[in-house]
TrEMBL record:
Keywords, alphabetical: Lyase, Metal-binding, Zinc
Membership in a protein family: Belongs to the Gfa family.
Segments forming domain CENP-V/GFA: 3-114
Protein name stated in the entry: GFA family protein
Organism: Pseudohalioglobus sediminis
GO molecular function: carbon-sulfur lyase activity; metal ion binding
């Protein structure tokens, strides 16, 4: 199944194949500021699953909450951030789930940067709660299942 994510005006698009490797609610301060919301919902796809990119995006490079390089691609017309490359997830492309238009997009099952979440935000008890954003470290260390490689924060 192919999916296309796009910015608010449609000028910047990215098309992916299949389901993401990881879908999570990220509570880091970067995602809070990027979305203007309490958290961002992000999907990470292997680069090989990116079929096409359309439009000329602009890049904003900075350090993530974990002090790793993060290069966000946003639309120069409407300002929407559509996708990014995170040093924490080598070989993967992050895509803002809200930029997809599919109602059946795979649901997140991880709450990353749980230590940074707003007090009133609650996630389902069956989700993995990571104090920071450890799945990337587990992937870098060669874990087959990055979620199973880490202990959750209690519900």
């Amino acid at each position: 199944m192919t999916r296309t994510a796009q910015c608010s005006c449609g000028a910047l698009q990215i098309t992916t194949d299949g389901d993401p490797e990881i879908t999570m609610a990220c509570n880091c301060t970067n995602c809070q500021r990027r979305t203007g919301s309490a958290f961002g919902v992000v999907a990470y796809f292997e680069r090989s699953k990116v079929l096409a990119r359309r439009g000329e995006g602009r890049q904003f490079t900075h350090l993530s909450d974990s002090k790793r390089r993060l290069e966000r691609t946003f639309c120069p017309h409407c300002g929407s951030t559509v996708h990014w490359q995170a040093e924490l997830f080598p070989g993967m492309i992050g895509v803002a789930v809200g930029c997809f238009n599919e109602q059946d997009f795979p649901a997140p099952n991880i709450a990353a940067w749980h230590n940074s979440k707003l007090d009133w935000v609650e996630f389902p008890c069956d989700w993995m709660r990571l104090p920071e954003q450890d799945p990337g470290q587990a992937l870098a260390e060669g874990a087959e299942d990055p979620v199973a490689a880490r202990e959750p924060v209690s519900c």
